[in-house]
Every structure is written in C-alpha cells, then in structure tokens.
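Contributing new records

If you add data, match the layout below exactly. Sequence lines come first and carry their own label; structure lines follow with theirs. Keep one chain per record. Anything else will be rejected by the validation script.
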Amino acid sequence: MAACIGVLSTFALGSWQLSRAAQKESLAAEMSARASEAPLGGTELLALLAPGVQASIAATHWYRQAHFRGRWLPEKTVYLDNRQMDGRQGFFVFTPFQLEGGGKPVVLVQRGWAPRNFEQRAQLPPVDTDSELVDLSGHLAGSPAQTFSLGSDQKDSGFNRIRQNLSLDAFRAETGLPLAVFTLVQQGPDSDGLSRHWAPVSTGVEKHYGYAFQWFALCALILGLYVWFQLVRPRWHA
C-alpha cells in the first residue's frame, strides 16, 4: 500500500509539473506574439492611461510595444539597488515621464542600468536627463520585480532615491503623481549614461521540466524497489 501511494503521488506530481511547463510555454508564446504586434496606440493606449483602469486589464498588454512623447520628471528619479546587467551589479534607473496631451498622465519608465560605486555607496551614478520634449520607445510591463529587502528603504523624511524595491501603488501615493498602472521598459541603444542590454524574459519552463524528471525518477525508483523486494528477490531465494 505504501509503494502504491508513493508511485501514484510521485506520478501525479510529475504530471502536474509537466502541465505547469505547458502553461509557461503557452505564456512565452503569448509574450512573443504580443512583442511582434504593432505598437500600442490610439484608443487602446488611451484606455490604459485612463484614471481608475484595472491593473489586470493592463496586464493583457504587457510586452506590447508603445511610443510616447513627453517630458521627464527627474526630481522623482529612483535607483533600484542590487540589479544585474551583463553580470555586473548596479542600479535600474526609473524616472516618471509626463506624457504630452490632455490630462497629462505619467508613466514610470525603466530607463536602463547604471553601475554602482561600491566604495561610496551613497553616490549616485551620473544620468543625463533632457529637459525638452522627447520621444520614447519601449514595451509595457508591470511593477518592477521585487528582491529581498531587510526592512523599509524609505527614510523618515525626504525623498529616498536609492531603494531595494518599488511598488507602483506606493509610489503613486508617495509622490501624488497620476501614474499609469503599467511601466515602460525603454528600448534602444545605450544613452544618457545608461545601458539597455535587457535580458530576454524567462518564464522558468526549464525548472518545471527538471522537477518533473525528479518526480518521475522517484516514481520509477519506488516501483523498481517494490518489484525487486516483493517479487524478484523472494523468487530468487526460493
């Protein structure tokens, strides 16, 4: 009975991991299809920028290309620490971008990566920010990925530029800016003192195939041990 339970349980877990891998592959195909679509614009883009739009609705357009025109708000630039690019540690630089046009909504832009001075950890890397109207291209994304953080990075007073994590909702409440429910990952050649060698988005499908292999191997081991000790070995001794 124990062998039967072990075989069924490990086989079910392996099958579940395969189903998760299939879901991730479907998600990867969907992201690739979105990235190849025409840039987001017109009424679709205006709907995403409207006040009160749900984040779940915006998520259906993540990885779509988009073009914006507006001005930077450099006084609210933040630097997310412990971010890697090309195997080096540094900052992801985020600056709010106020769009041209009626209502003037604001999009938080992930502008690029900058190295950190590890000898003077409070020193910020130089980042050039144009004060005139500029055109931006990139793809839509959600809030920045969270990393492990010991406590809060926000100081008791003043605006903290170096942070571990950044939440759109919290940043909207902190700054009072009419932030959109999505961010824009800026694309294009390196500029403004920033690198933009963005790594391809990984869904982690390989991890699920690895787990599935482990569960199926354990299932085969339990079955093999049962056959050996309960069937083969007794007959061998007899």
